[in-house]
Design a protein that fits this description.
The protein is an alpha/beta fold. The protein has a single domain, classed as Thiamin diphosphate (ThDP)-binding fold, Pyr/PP domains (Rossmann fold, 3-Layer(aba) Sandwich), CATH 3.40.50.970. It contains eleven helices and seven strands. α1 crosses α2.
Length: about 325
């Protein structure tokens, strides 16, 4: 087995592949349910971005935190959320993680350290900086992984959050999940910099660009940043360059990018890339891969049945979460 994965046990590699399959299966099911009208509102799918979610979040301990984005199903699953409770949440059921109140864009699972997806672009960044300050004041060695999109990199909260975290050496890893488009705006048209990672120099912190479709490359980059934060040396900025196959949201007709571009990125699919690597290195057999894929889709179907059979929230409880 090559040096790249020699430090990771086979059980972890298999778990990472299983999680990538679970994310893909979950989101394909969600896409199907929206198309059939069984889910309402909107959703933002990250099909094609599984390498970034799994590579990054797998570096954390169970007591570490993440802040996520409106495209956060993969982050939530990798951090350990129960698929059944997630599905119930998206179906608006009482058994959902947030009792059906959060839905896709605001799903959270505080028990696993997921402080929530966020419908506000860059909304999780100041939260992550605040979490980092809290952990530093408590004297712990926990860290917070702050995941945001390329569109968020042009928001004022991006600058304020990273600048403050850098100034105070807070244990936050800022991860830009760059899927090439902020809604329909290409990153090439939205900023002068060649990379988001270059901006780290302006804050005096490390910055790194990584192939977001290579789960092991993401894991290695984020692992180093996590250790740096744990050791008290402050934040890092990592840009993981990846791609979403689906539109920005379910109403997006993909009119701003070509089919050739989408097909080109699909040839670099993060799951297939990882499968090819593991099988070529004799870490897993094709039969092992098929078992993991089948188990993932079966788990999602079970989660769907759970959600479908769960009760709707009682309208009388609607104001229970309102405090002001």
């Amino acid at each position: 087995m090559s040096e790249q994965i020699s430090e990771l046990p086979l059980s972890q590699l298999r778990s990472m592949l299983s999680t990538m399959f679970r994310i893909r299966a979950f989101e394909e099911k969600v896409d199907e349910l929206f198309m059939r009208g069984e889910m309402h509102g909107t959703t933002h799918l990250s099909i094609g971005q599984e390498g970034t979610a799994v590579g990054a979040v797998s570096t954390l301990r169970s007591d570490d935190y993440i802040t996520s984005t409106h495209r956060g199903h993969g982050h939530c699953i990798t951090k350990g959320a129960d698929l059944s409770l997630m599905m119930a949440e998206l179906l608006g059921k009482e058994t959902g993680i947030c009792r059906g109140r959060g839905g896709s864009m605001h799903i959270a699972d505080v028990g696993t350290g997921n402080l929530g997806a966020n419908g506000i672009v860059a909304g999780g960044m100041p939260i992550a900086t605040g979490v980092g300050l809290s952990m530093k004041m408590q004297g712990t060695d926990r860290v917070c992984l702050c995941i945001f999109g390329d569109g968020a990199a042009n928001e004022g909260a991006f600058h304020e959050s990273i600048n403050l975290a850098a100034t105070w050496d807070l244990p936050v890893i800022f991860l830009c999940e760059n899927n090439q488009y902020g809604m329909s705006m290409s990153t090439r048209r939205a900023m002068r910099n060649e990379t988001v990672a270059q901006r780290a120099a302006g804050y005096g912190i490390p910055g790194e660009l990584v192939d977001g479709n290579n789960v092991l490359a993401v894991y290695a980059a984020v692992s180093a940043a996590v250790q740096r934060a744990r050791d008290g040396h402050g934040p890092s900025l990592i840009e993981s360059r990846t791609y979403r196959y689906k539109g920005h949201a379910k109403s997006d007709q993909n009119l701003y990018r070509s089919r050739d571009e989408i097909r080109e990125w699909q040839q670099r699919d993060p799951i297939q890339y990882f499968v090819n690597y593991l099988t070529s290195e004799k870490a897993l057999s094709q039969e092992d891969v098929k078992k993991e894929e089948a188990a993932a889709y079966a788990a999602v179907e079970e989660a769907y049945r759970f959600g479908l059979g769960s009760p709707d929230p009682d309208p009388e409880t609607l104001l229970e979460g309102v405090y002001a």
